[in-house]
Amino acid sequence: MATPTDKVKDAIEEGANKTDKAIATMAGKASHATRRAQVAAEDAVDGGRDALEGALICGKAMIRANPLAAVATVAVVAYLWGRLRR
Asked: Could you tell me which residues come within 8 angstroms of residue 57 by beta carbon, excluding any fewer than 6 positions away?
């Protein structure tokens, strides 16, 4: 026959087991969410990198097609920047 002390020990052990299972489940969910966030961040960085590379390619092509206009534009921007800094 189980004594009250044994019943309390069993109840505590059962509660501890349930708590362990709940913690393991939540840790798994948190780990899964973290992995999804990491993948999303990596995709965003890759997309940004691709967009920047595309912009640089377009810029180089435009400069090669119109070198005088590019130099004039840079000169005007540098002049205006200098005027704004005063």
From this structure: none
Tokens describing residue 52: 């920047």
CA 73 to CA 81: how far, in whole Å?
A: 12
The whole-number pLDDT of residue 1 equals 66
- pLDDT tens for 11-66 read 999 999 999 999 999 999 999 999 999 999 999 999 999 999 999 999 999 999 99
| Amino acid, single-letter form, for residue 81 | W
d(CA 29, CA 25) in angstroms, rounded, equals: 6
**Res. 86 pLDDT band, cuts 50 70 90:** confident
Round to whole Å and give the CA distance between 14 and 21: 11
Name residue, tokens 């052990």. Answer: 13
- Give the Cα separation of 72 and 20 in Å (integer): 70
Amino acid at 25: T
Residue type for position 60: K
